[in-house]
Amino acid sequence: MKGRILIIEDEEKLARFIELELSHEGYQVHKCTDGRTGLDRALAESYDLILLDIMLPGLNGMEVLRRLKMEKDTPVILLTARDSVMDKVAGLDGGAVDYITKPFAIEELLARIRVCLKLRRPSTEAAEPGFREGQLVWQKLVLDEPRRQVFWEDSAIQLTNREFLMLQTLLENRDIVLSRESLLERVCGYDYLGDTNIVDVYVRHLRAKIDEIFHVNMIQTVRGVGYVIRSE
Ligand code: CA
Fold it and tell me: Model-level pTM?
């Protein structure tokens, strides 16, 4: 058994679909279709992860999250509607580890679940050499978030704000193929209604500043889907 997951989602068809897919992947899955039942179950039982819809009858998802977090630290991934900007921000502030925007590809949800469960497992391996808090490392590249700096070994790489955000997003979601839409949303803001080709432009800039200079193939294109940075 890979883990116990609770789905709190009132759209029966969607809840059933997620339940089937997750069971198929080997997770033990329970589902609730309203907030109050979901919260009771989340508090009464032990889960590795909760998938929580925001618009719910009974108690809404934000209230479920708030009450859950007062008692437990079970990780929560929010299922949000595309237009609910404030919900996403409030959800992450309220202690959710991640969110996924509906409609989503099941592969993206599965990848986010894997990442989330992996983060929970205390690693017995030593941290990567030179690793410090707030740093993301890939091969010889170090992205230092608090200092907003990027280095390849000792060479500083000058990035614009959005290039930095794009690289950070890709590094944080390593091994997850991110769609142009989700990259655009994270880099340009939730309410940005621009062309997703912008994402291709930033990727080109990053490749020119990193891949081409240091002879690596860091940002990979997944045709028809988006971009990914893979662990070595
Ligand atoms: Ca709903």
Answer: 0.55
Spans of all domains in the chain: 4-120, 130-229
The token pair at 44 is: 């009464």
- Residue of 210, 228, 194, 195 lying closest to 111 (CA atoms): 228
- Domain 130-229 sits in CATH at 1.10.10.10
For domain 4-120, the CATH architecture is 3-Layer(aba) Sandwich (3.40)
Interatomic CA distance for residues 163 and 203, integer angstroms: 8
Instruction: Tell me how crowded residue 121 is: count the other CB atoms within 10 A of its CB.
Output: 9
pLDDT tens-digit map of 42-77: 999 999 999 999 999 989 999 999 999 999 889 999
Q: How far is the CA of 14 from the centre of ligand 1 (A)?
A: 10
What is the CA(96)–ligand 1 centre distance, in A?
A: 17
